[in-house]
Amino acid sequence: MASSGTEPELRLSLQRVISSLVAATWLVAALTLSHEAFAQICKPVSQRTGELGCWITANAMLGQLPRQPIFWHLDTYPSRAAAETAKGPRGTVVESLGKVWLLTIDIGGWRPAGGERIAEIGPLPVSASAQYSAQYMEAIFTPGMTAPAHRHSGPEAWYTLAGETCLETPEGTMVGRAGGAHVIVPGGPPMHLTATGTETRRALVLILHDSMQPPTSPAHDWTPKGLCRN
């Protein structure tokens, strides 16, 4: 059968096909990386492969909480040993964002021995009859990064060290920024998070959840309106 082109032409066509395939492969890889960067899901810190993302630093079972207003207490210590010595029954020691933290769920006004008091966040909307667990996370997002729509089975709170974050819920938006008001979100409603502003967001995050339910679940039944565009 007669050839439809000369040998040089065939080689050129083959090179063009290969180049197109290589370009398509790079495009797929780039889109995959982009999706991963803009759809962060919190993972255990043991799976960390880079700085950016949401990383679970600790999980702690707390049981039934006191029948008084409940707060999240944040204190720092010069060493892990010092923090462990000061830890109470509802305290957790984590190393995060360059510091050693004693994170405690307790009544308002509670103070540990020693350390430096950083914040007391609350009161947290909890049920006196539920059994609670605390999940602590470290979140580092560059401006424009988002988390997919989700909901929690108990209140979520942030302590923002740097940057700014906008949270959209069916009720509107809430903004947390370094030096500003702390964000506290009750459990149940769907939410969509976006890092806004111009600085990388660095925050400690608490989910105080019902121990019989997962702390976080996808919210496929709700679509955000995009109220947190940077």
Briefly say what this structure is.
The protein is of the alpha+beta class and 230 residues long.
Strand order of the largest sheet: 1-2-7-14-9-12
Q: What's the total number of strands?
A: 15
Tell me about the biggest sheet? 6 strands, mixed
- Helices, by number, come to 2
Structural class: alpha+beta
Global mean pLDDT? 86
Helicity, as a percent range:
10-25%
Q: What order do the helices and strands follow?
A: HEEEHEEEEEEEEEEEE
The 3D shape can be described as globular
Q: What is the gyration radius calculated from CA atoms?
A: 23 Å
Residue share in β-strands? 35-45%
> What is the distance, rounded to the nearest whole angstrom, between the alpha carbons of the first and last residues?
62 Å
Uncertain ranges: 17-40
